[in-house]
Amino acid sequence: MSAVPALRPEAAQTLAHGAVIPAHPLALTPERTLDERRQRALTRYYLEAGAGGIAVGVHTTQFEIRDPEHALFEPVLALAAEEMNQRAGAHVVRIAGVAGGTAQAVSEAELARDLGYDAVLVSPRVSGADDRALLDRARAVGEVLPIVGFYLQTAIGGPVLGREFWREFASIPAVVAVKAAPFDRYRTLELVRGVAASGRADEIALYTGNDDAIVADLLSEFHVESPDGPRTLRFVGGLLGQWAVGTRAAVSLLDDAHRAAAGDLEAYQRLGRLASDMVDVNQAVFDPGNDFHGVIAGVHEMLRQQGLLQGTWCLDPRESLSPGQAEEIERVRRAYPELNDDAFIADNVESWLR
After folding, report:
1. What pLDDT score was predicted for residue 349?
2. 104: Cβ–Cβ under 8 A, 6 or more apart, which residues?
């Protein structure tokens, strides 16, 4: 049996403590080719904003980067790796998304390993795959790099995964974290209960991906059963498309969440005041009123309004802003300045674009 790949000690410490990990978008030209200058600028923004990690090649980066007509998976991962190698401290966790069936996912994990990534986020969106196939695939990928699990919402193609699935998944020795993003409180609880039931809760960091419940997840205590008896588990950080915007503000928010968990009442109250505002920002960016049609374009539009991106183009021309979405994004930017990075970006965007 092959040895389980291990995280770098600095990355393991960051992941366990909890970090802001933005899901990296894809910067495109009007011709829908890679805009390398602005792609680099995004990575620089996240690093200087204080992100504890970056996830590249995930849903927000657009799954279509893998399509042969685009062939952008390796170039996009390589660009981010180069910027992180030059600018990131050792504590920054480098995560690559992998997708497709077992052979494709393993191949992508091998590429990520060769580029210096620490771990892979395994997409559960695999056509025709049942629970057993997803688990076997995860075991195969886990022989290459440590794994971050991913519960993807059904609205954008994720399967329903029950408690027993998560118990078995968390039992895989290579699993170091799980991102919960079903956008459903019941399913989130089932994931947490499954991780607890695996007996590996102390080895697996829980990260919220529930963009509609970020503050709620970070403040929640989950009282669950484990093989060693009752446990209290918490989400320690977030790996989020939402945190691809307002990243510096997110770092402050997560710091407050950690303070609140340690008993700081003022931090708890600050988060309570921000919770519904964060949901309002998310509805503008993620477009749930239109079944998330503008979810990726919405992230682009926020970054465009702030000067980091030139436009909202996606590789799939059908992915675009919904009517009125740009105006909604401008509204929430003006309404909640403490949740965006307008001033920080304005002060630094020119240097990031050099």
Report:
1. 98
2. 66, 98
Q: Please, which residues have CB within 8 angstroms of residue 192's CB and are 6 or more apart in sequence?
A: 180, 206, 222, 224, 233
Q: Largest alpha-carbon pair distance within the chain?
A: 57
Backbone phi and psi for residue 309, each to the nearest 5 degrees, phi listed first: -115, 155
Q: Select from 278, 239, 306, 258 the least CA-distant residue to 45.
A: 306
In the predicted structure, residue 2 carries a pLDDT above the cut 80: no
DSSP 107-126: HHHHHHHHTT--EEEE----
As given in the structure block, the two tokens for residue 118 are 């620490």
Give me the phi and psi of 120, to 5 degrees please. -125, 140
Residues 6+ apart with CB under 8 A from 8: 90, 118
- Burial status of residue 146 (CB atoms within 10 A of its CB: 0-12, 13-18, 19 or more): buried
What three-state secondary structure class fits 88?
coil
Q: Count Cβ atoms below 10 Å from residue 78 Cβ, excluding itself.
A: 15
**Whose CA is closest to 209, among 17, 22, 6, 11?**
22
**SS3 of residue 77 by DSSP:** helix
CA angle 181, 186, 187 (to 5 degrees): 40
Residue 289 to residue 156: CA distance in whole angstroms = 14
Q: What are 166's two structure tokens?
A: 């998560």
Q: Could you give the CA distance from residue 221 to residue 233 in angstroms, rounded to a whole number?
A: 6
Predicted structure pTM score = 0.96
Whether 1 has a pLDDT exceeding 60, the answer reads no
For residues 332-342, give the mean pLDDT. Answer: 96
